[in-house]
Write a structure and sequence with these properties.
two-stranded antiparallel sheet; 4 helices; 53% helix; mainly alpha
Amino acid sequence: MIAGAERDRLRLEVWIKWDVGMPASLIAVEHGVSESTVYRLLREQRDIWVAEPSCEACGCSESRACVDEWGEPCGWAAPGLCTACAREAA
C-alpha cells in the first residue's frame, strides 16, 4: 500500500503522464503498479480537483493555478474569479 507523501507524489506523476496522452498500461509498468492502481490514483486526483473551489471563467483552482501577465500564479479576486480573469474582464 502506498501512503502519505509518496502516494501524493505518485498521484501527480500519474496524472501528468495521463494528461499528455501516456496509456495507463505504460504508466503502470513505469511505476511498478497495476493498471487498476493507476486508474484509482487518477480518480483520486480528479476528486481532489473537483472538490476545491475553481474560477468560473477559466477553471483554475488552488492546485491548478493559471498564470498572470507577469508569469506568476494567479490568486483570487473574488469567490469564483481568479485575479488573471478579473484583469482580463476589466
